[in-house]
Amino acid sequence: MTCAYPGSGAITEIHEAGTCAMYKNCGKKSFFGAQLPCPYNGPAVPPDKTTRAKLIDVCGSSWASSDVCCDIDQLENLQTNLKKAENLISSCPACQANFVEFFCSFTCSSNQSKFVNVTGLGRATSGKDIVTELDYYVQPDTAIKFFDSCKDVKFSATNGYVMDLIGGGATDFQGFLKFLGDEKPLLGGSPFQINFPWDETPSELTRLEYSAKICSDPDERYRCACVDCPGACPSLPPTKAEKICKVGIMPCFSFAIIILYSLVLIVFVLTYKSIIQFRRGPFYKPERLRLLQGNGGDSDDEEEGDIVESSEMVEGPSTSTYWLHRALQSRFTTIGLFCAQFPGLVIGLSLLIVGIMSLGWFHFTIETNPVRLWVSPTSAPYKEKEFYDSNFGPFYRAEQAFVVNETGPVLSYETLKWWFEVESNIAALKSPIYGIAFDDICLKPTGEACVIQSVTQYFAGEFDNVDEDGWKEQVNICTENPVDCLPPFQQPLKPSMILGGVESGYTEAHAMIISWVVNNGQDGSALAEHAIDWEQAFEAYLLEVQDQAAARGLRVSFNAEISLEKELNKSTNTDAKIVVISYLFMFFYASYALGRISFRDRLRSLIESKFTLGLFGIIIVLLSVSASVGLFSLFGVKVTLIIAEVIPFLVLAVGVDNIFLLSHELELVNSKHSGEPVEHRIARAVGRMGPSILLSACCETIAFALGAVVSMPAVRNFAIYAAGAVFINALLQMTMFVSALTLDQIRFEANRVDCLPCLTIEVPSPSQKGEGLLTTWIRENYAPSILKKEAKAVILMVFCGLCAIALALVPKIQLGLDQRIAIPSDSYLVEYFDDLYTYFDSGPPVYFVTREYNLTERAAQKSLCGRFSTCNEYSLANILEQERKRSEVSYIAEPAASWIDDYLHWLNPALEECCRFKKGSKDEMCSPYAREWQCDVCYADRDPPWNITMNGLPEGSEFMNFFSFWIESPSDPCPLGGKAPYSNAVVPDYDRLTINASSFRTSHVPLRSQNDFISAYAAARRIAESISRETGVDVFPYSVFYIFFDQYGSIFTLTTTLIMAAEAAIFVIFSVLLGSLRTGVVVTATVAMIVIDIMGVMALWGISLNAVSLVNLVICVGIGVEFCSHIARAYMVPNVDVLELSRSRLKDRDERVWAALVSVGGSVLCGITLTKLIGVTVLAFTRSKIFEIYYFRMWLTLVVVAASHGLIFLPVALSYFGGSEYSIEDENGVYSDVTTRRYRSLFEEPETADSEDDEEEEEEEAEQEMRH
Known about the structure:
Blueprint: E1 22-28, E2 35-39, H1 49-59, H2 72-89, H3 93-108, H4 112-115, E3 116-123, E4 129-136, H5 140-150, E5 154-155, E6 160-161, H6 163-166, H7 173-181, E7 193-195, E8 246-247, E9 250-251, H8 252-279, H9 287-292, H10 311-315, H11 323-341, H12 343-357, H13 370-374, H14 380-392, E10 397-404, H15 413-428, H16 438-441, E11 452-453, H17 471-480, H18 495-498, E12 499-500, E13 511-518, H19 526-551, E14 555-559, H20 563-594, H21 602-608, H22 611-634, H23 641-672, H24 678-705, H25 713-749, E15 752-753, E16 756-760, H26 773-786, H27 789-809, H28 819-822, H29 829-839, E17 845-853, H30 858-864, H31 876-884, H32 887-890, H33 899-906, E18 916-918, E19 935-937, H34 956-966, H35 979-982, E20 986-989, E21 994-1003, H36 1010-1031, E22 1035-1038, H37 1042-1045, H38 1051-1074, H39 1077-1100, H40 1107-1132, H41 1136-1139, H42 1148-1178, H43 1185-1217, E23 1224-1225, E24 1231-1232, H44 1234-1241, H45 1252-1267
Parallel strand pairs: 4-7
Antiparallel strand pairs: 1-2, 3-4, 5-6, 8-9, 10-13, 10-14, 11-13, 12-13, 15-16, 17-21, 17-22, 18-19, 20-21, 23-24
């Protein structure tokens, strides 16, 4: 029975120097309680020799002469309690000295009654009065210095602070002393209540004041190490902050682009107006007058409708040709004639060759491992991961769940009871194939208990330990001081790791966070297979738990290690359906657009339909993909999901375009040369379109092939397969499809039904004359409209302006690929990732790994340690600690777990519960709880002794010998034991007496976005480089996510390099094949503008730059070429038949642009633009966010931007800056060019024919005149 006697004056009446307030121990409150002091308000007592010796041993030499208010029993208890703290604070002598002085003064000072006032008494089990409560008056300045000396001391084993353990995580001196004084007898705290009043000091009392040490004390005996004392740290050089130049809110680059464009626009407008004014002045002479005066020369500034050339026209036509044009036309004509004459042979040989190449499918493999997909095996992160896995084992597998109550606290007695049952069921789960339980595969740091990070571990994982009325108090105690609630696996649980959404206290948290840690193995190993098998059962059970939670008004989200890959595969399967539907839509459109289907003459439509031809074109696309996959699979190039989903679309988009070009060219040839045999007409069409197809195929193949030099496997493999498929597709179209086109034309002219060629329908033969409505509209309306002077100027300014805006937006493009985008929108992982970013307030762990460094030498130890006075100023531990203090740039949140410091401090003989040998032995350790008389403290009698300067610490074989004991030492009762925190952190080599590898664990700040992850990786890489530079140690950073974010350090440079290399290739190919540098420059600039505009849309539409969008940008270059190449070649080598349709008097470049648009503009619009637009539109219905963003959005942008540039900007740019004309050899070997036509037009006015017959007569007369 105990009782209390409140009051201040009745118990301690005398407050004078030399007077005590307490003396000796009078008993315990209960059987399990600690000894409590007797109330004693008498004079201080001179100690006997034994007490004096113990006093000096415990409190120091300054107590060698004074009287005391304590006896030897009290000193024994004091020493025991101080030892508990010394295990944690011995690395900081100032903190340790203050700790000792603070409690020695409280317990033994002869002036005790001057600052201690007993306010409560109780009755001990012995019947004596005992002190149960008192006030301890301390000078605030002394308390502040005491707190400051200890607040930054680290506890490496938990990556935390000693203050979390000895001060309850206090942030000021009041909280620190309150925690020390609160009565917690059963938890190792104060056995009675000690209050620290701060308001007023009673007149009879004086606050305790002593010369408290500071952690950066000038006396080396008390100076703390850098990691424990900011004032003792060197200053790190400032980081090279990213220079963000802005003008207002606008980046300087964007501002410069806008200003530059504005200046160019002003100059252009002023120049244009000046020319107009000049032409209206008295000195301007019309062209016809200059011709009559013999005043020749070129003029690109003529008014619309004027003839540009003069004396050259009068002299006669030019017959200059480009040899490559003639050679290519001749070769393709020959190829076309052969394929038309022997269609069966060509088709058979093509199928045979494709079949042989497709045999490589037997070696076909799909790469789904994200590491091998996105990381080059020669890159530093890949090699570092291999080193980490081979030395420390593959990074553990983490299964995690969130239990969320969005309307109130998630914790309640009923919820805890239910969740204990859930965890019990999970522990009992058996995997479906191998029958594996969690205990078989879990991580066991101590070799016994599994790591489960959960609030249930605050109750030792047993629901029997949960008191219905006291569970909240238990949670509060454990969250304040996790070391007092060690789980069975002996590592303190930080409350932020297990409770989230905390507003007013952890018991009011909105979310429980539970993590199960599973051992991992190398791919294909039994351990990995067993873990995957168990995760299948875990996933199935948690899906059931979600329903149970919903019935309780809660929500459960979770993630197993296998979940992401499974959900991605589910997304891929869904995407595959959408992609197939997209292909079908493009196929049906192509089949419809190729034929002349009339709903009024349905019988004729059965013949004019091109459904079979379209199907054959699709088959050729599939054959080219099959041949490419087979060929490169044979050489061991693995297929990725990007290749499987994208390349058929890409090849189909390119292939359909060529089908339209050949088919429409054949229609034009048929209309002009209907009397010739089918084979000759096919040869003419191939001769005209073959060089254009070759031009685009070469550009696309080389543009894609350039990606093969990239080390990133996903991009490299895509580039290889894409280049091969596009090239093979072009070959098959110029051979196999030409033969099919011949057979279809023969069928058509024989009135045979499409799809059923054995059926013949007698219907009137269609007129081969005329052209499609689209071609007529382009010839009569569209082309003349955009070639007007005013229209051209506006188009040029608008497109250049849009390009300038897009270029200004490029810096706004974000990097990264959010995992939530990669999974289906209805996946259960969506809620998990949302909860992860919302409730999980801890960052991912990061390890700084050392390689092949002989730490048995003193110099090496000093380059890594941080808790000894002679550690290098810029040692690994010191640099990490300084970086932690600037977390806004380092992204390091916690003190590093320094195994070298904990190991060497474990040897400190003052820590009597740590390193202990059995009596009389030097090679057998005492068990943790062996009695003192059974053990000898290590290093107790060593010469030189253990000291903070490291002089007496072990080296060589002695280092490795003690290390072998430490690494097997538990964390209880000595918290510096190495088994639990470091058993997987150090790789010793006892044969070579060295440490092969070791890791220093810390963690990042919470990372909430892709930019955070990228910046954290860059910061870790910078820190590791600085450590290596300062210490000479080979150090690299490792975290499980680093390997995926390494690409972002160079992705922008890689993107720029790939695009620029592709642009250079385009320029060379166009300049050589077209014979014009100027046209090559125009096309190259147009493709560059297409890519820049697409990147500008990426910034506006939330499309980040990553490996997926990089592949798509490479595709954009290839498809951009497709939109430009045919018009460019038709401009340089205009079709004679199309030129004969012209009745306008446009100047040179304008007329060739007009001819190019009439010749191939319809094919570009129908074959390229609409086909792709239809296919892309279908992708909008996908459930996959990644497909919607990175395929639908980017490809839709590509189609719109590339089509507008190819059909609007490129013709205008060619009319301004295109290359000079070349003569064309017609079918009769006679040269015809634009100049020749104008030679005739000088002497006649254009007429408009009243009928098709009149047009034909006039064209024949013009042709005869030209021949003469």
